[in-house]
Amino acid sequence: QVQLVESGGGLVQPGGSLRLSCAASISIFSFNAMDWFRQAPGKQRELVATITHGGSTGYGDSVKGRFTISRDNAKNTVYLQMNSLKPEDTAVYYCRVVESTFLKIFWGQGTQVTVSS
């Protein structure tokens, strides 16, 4: 079983920044990919950003140029740097990993991000 612990959410004003962290209980090299998703009230969960085992990254159209996904291999942690935040970025943000041996999927508990003045 993989444990994922997210942190870094909170309340921020429009135009502000936050950095989310997701710490895994095992080596991140055990994963095919690590992703950030988000879910706003009344909306479906959507992919925000992904980073593959090889380090390639991808982003949802709504966050390109504003969000950056990265990882610290030594800390088994993936980050989401969020800049120029907008009210529409308000959501619960979830970390997800795909374990490489059996392709099992694990989710974190989520962290709330609220962008409001």
SSE order, as H and E? EEEEEEEEEEE
Q: How would a crystallographer describe the biggest sheet?
A: 7 strands, mixed
Low-confidence region ranges: none
Structural class: mainly beta
**Approximately how much helix is present in the residues?**
under 10%
Shape: globular
Tally of extended strands? Answer: 11
Beta fraction of the residues?
A: over 45%
- N-to-C terminal Cα separation, in Å? 40 Å
Mean residue pLDDT: 96
Please tell me how large the radius of gyration is. 13 Å
Oligomer: single chain
Number of helices: 0
How is the secondary structure organized here?
Layout: E1 4-7, E2 10-12, E3 18-24, E4 31-39, E5 46-52, E6 57-59, E7 67-72, E8 77-82, E9 91-99, E10 105-107, E11 111-115
Parallel strand pairs: 2-11
Antiparallel strand pairs: 1-3, 3-8, 4-5, 4-9, 5-6, 7-8, 9-10, 9-11
